[in-house]
C-alpha cells in the first residue's frame, strides 16, 4: 500500500483493483495458514473417523455372516463415532476462531484506512456506504470463513476420502458416481458467476440504503421542516427494495445450485442401486460391499451440499472482499507516528502565487494568491461568498494540495512539514464548530487528551467558558449531546476555540460563525479572539464588523485572488469592494 511521504502529494494506489477477488480472499487467509493447517488436520482426522464407519459397518455385516465375534468391529465403530465427533468439533472451533480473527483484522484495517483517507477522497464517497462496508461487508466476510471455508475444508476431505474408499469397493460404481459429480460441478460452476454478480449488486444496494439514510439523518430537521418525510421514506424504501430484489436473485441461483446437487445425488443413488444390484446378482460384487458403497454415496451427499453452499457463501464473500478492497486501495495520508513537540512560538504564513482547483475538471478556486500573515497578532480574511477564503484554511491544513505556488508556515514550505507536525502546529476551528457526542470535558480534550487540569482551567477562563461550566448540572462532565444540542451557537464556537487552544497551536485558524450571536456572546467572542491573538497568530475568516475592526491587518479576497491588504481604515479609504462589504456584508455588527 502506498503511503505518501511528507514532501509529496499524499496518495497512491496498489492497482490491486484488477487482482482477482479470490486472490484477495486468499491473501487474507495467508497470515493464518498455520491455524488453517491445524484446523485442516483436525477436520481430516474427523473425516477419517467418519470414513472408517461404513468400512466398520461392513466388518459388522461380515462378522454376522461368518458368525465371528462382533466385539471388535462394534468397539471400533463406537471409537470412530466418539473420536470423529470430538475432533470434528475442535477442528470447527479452531477454523471459526481463525475466521473471526480474519474479520477482526479486516475491520481494524478498514477503520484505520478510512480515518487516514485524504479529505478529497472522502468528499467523493458517501458516508453511509462507507459505514456499510465496515459493518455489513465484513459480516459477509465472516460468513465466508465460518460457513464457507470451514464447512468446505471438512467436506473436501470427506469427498476425496469417500471417493477413494469407493474405488476400493467397486470401480464400475465409482465411475457412475464420478460422472454424476462432474455433472454437478459443471452446473454449479455455471451458476457461480451469477451468484457473485447478484451478491455485488445486493451489497451495493445495502450501501446505497446506508448512504440515503445517512443523508436523511444529517439533515433531519430540514427533512422535517420541508415536509419531505414521505419522499425520503420512498427513497430509502426504493434502495431497500433493490437490496431485496438482488437478495432474491442470490437466493434463486443458490437454490438452482442446491437443487442440482440434490437431484444429481438421487440419480446417483438410483444408478448405483440398479447397476450395483445387477453386479451383486451376477456375483461380481458382495452384498456387504454394495451396502458399504451406498453408505459412502450417502456420505457424499452432505459434503457435496456443503461444498455448493460453501461456494455460494464464498461468492458473496468475494463480492464483499472486493468492496472492502476498494476502500483499502484509496490514497491515504501518511501515518502520524512520533511527532516532535511543535513548540509554542507564533508562526507566520506566506501564500506565494498559489493556484488551486478541487479537481482537474473543476474551475480554479485560487489563482495567483499571494499574501503574508506575520507571526503573532490577528489577520482577517474577508471577501464575498465563494471568494476562496475557507479554501485557504483547507490548503494550510493540507486537506488538499495546491497545484502551483508555495504555501509556507513559519517560513517552511508546508509540503516539507511532516503532516502530523504541521497539523499539530495549527489550531482549526470550523465555521459550524462541531461538538462531538460525549461530555464537555471529552470535547475540550479531543485534540489534546493529556492536558493538565490547570491548563484546562486557564483556557476555560480565556474562552469565557467558566460560566457555562458552572451552569451545567455536572460541570465539565455534563453530556453535551450528539450535536451539542445543549450548547448555544456562541458557546459551541468558544468550546471549539478552547479545544483548538488546548493543543497550544502556533497558528489559530478560525472560521467565524455567520450565525447571529447575542450581544453578550458577540462581546465574549471578540474578547477571546483579541486575547488569543496576544498569545499566538490568529488568522480569522471574518464575518463581523467587530472582528475586522479589531484585526491588525485585513486581506480582501475576490474570486480566487487577493484584491487588497490593509487595516480597516486604510481599506475603507482605498478599496471599493471592502467599503461595500463593510456597508452590506458585515451586518452582524455589534
Ligand atoms: N470540497 C470542495 N470540492 C469542490 N469545490 C469546492 C469544495 N469546497 C469549496 N468548493 C468551491 O470552491 C469555491 C470557494 O469556496 P470557499 O469555501 O473557499 O469560499 P469562501 O470564500 O470561504 O465562501 P464562504 O464565505 O461562502 O464560505 C466555491 O465555488 C466552492 O463551490
Structure characterization notes:
This protein has helices at 21-29, 33-65, 71-116, 119-124, 127-169, 171-218, 220-225, 229-281, 287-328, 389-396, 419-425, 440-444, 453-462, 466-471, 489-501, 519-535, 545-549, 568-574, 576-585; strands at residues 349-357, 364-373, 377-382, 404-409, 412-413, 426-429, 507-511, 537-541, 553-558, 561-566. The chain has 590 residues and is an alpha/beta fold. It has 2 domains: 16-328, ABC transporter transmembrane region fold; 349-585, P-loop containing nucleotide triphosphate hydrolases (Rossmann fold), CATH 3.40.50.300. It has a 6-stranded mixed β-sheet with strand order 6-7-8-3-9-10, with helices on both faces. Strands 2-1-4-5 form a 4-stranded antiparallel β-sheet, covered by helices on one side. α2 (33-65) packs antiparallel against α3 and α18 (568-574) crosses α19. The chain is elongated, with a radius of gyration of 35 Å. The two termini are 53 Å apart. Residues 1-17 have low confidence and may be disordered. Its main location: membrane. Residues 349-584 form the ABC transporter domain. Keywords: ATP-binding, Cell inner membrane, Cell membrane, Membrane, Nucleotide-binding, Transmembrane, Transmembrane helix, Transport.
